[in-house]
Each structure stands twice: as structure tokens, then as C-alpha cells.
Fold this sequence. Notes:
With 139 residues, the chain is mostly helical. Helices cover 66% and strands 0% of the residues. Helix 1 crosses helix 5 and helix 2 (28-56) packs antiparallel against helix 5.
Amino acid sequence: MDPVLLASTVVTSLAPYLAKAAGKLTDTLTDKFAGTLGDAALKKTGEFYAWLKQRLAGTPAANNALATMEKSPDDTASQAALSEELKKLIASDPDFLKQLTSMFAPIANQSGAANFNNQVAGDVGKIIQINNANDIQIS
């Protein structure tokens, strides 16, 4: 997997978990999404998060970025900061890339896993998310 995409996907996947853990799920759709993850996916994400937190403890900048995201999981700036630190580690440490890929695989392979579309810049008029859609026509 592309290192930039991997870092972004890891951060995007952690955000709902951290929001749920912090009791900050206030949006009905976000809460419903987290509910669809199921206990198994939440457990796997929790295990991954514990591993990542321990692994980043020796890297002050990455550790600080994770701590900031823990406090504000929905903040795009904190997400971008953590993603950037992960990209740096991935680029500089092949062992970290191997471990990260291995540890993240069970989350990425969960049945019912979500696909995320991140809009970094630009004007978005409408966003539509469809889950378990059959025979949908959009015109």
C-alpha cells in the first residue's frame, strides 16, 4: 500500500474509534457508523490503537500528534498532523512500515469495513454516503 494512503487510512480509521472512546460521538450518522463497526471491529481497532500508542511513545513528535488527536479526534488539523508524522516514520523506518501494515490489516479487512473519501481542499456542495445499497439510481 502507498505510504501516504496508508498513513491517511490509519488516521481516518482511528478517528471514529477515538471519538467513541472519548464519548464525543454527537452526530447521529457518525454514531450510527460507529455502531455498525460491531464489537469485533472495535476490539481490533482498540488493539491496533494500543500498539500504535506504545510504538509511537519513543518518537516525541508522533507521540504528541497522537495525544492531540486523542483530545480532538474530529479536528482535521490534528488528523493531518498525525498522518504527517506517520508518513515520516513510514519513509524512514522499513520495520515500522512492515509492523504498521501487519497490525492494521485486521482492521482494513473487517467485514463491513468502510470506504472513506477525504476532501482535502475545495468546495463540496453535497456529500452522499450509501451503505448496503441495492438497485439505486441517481440521476
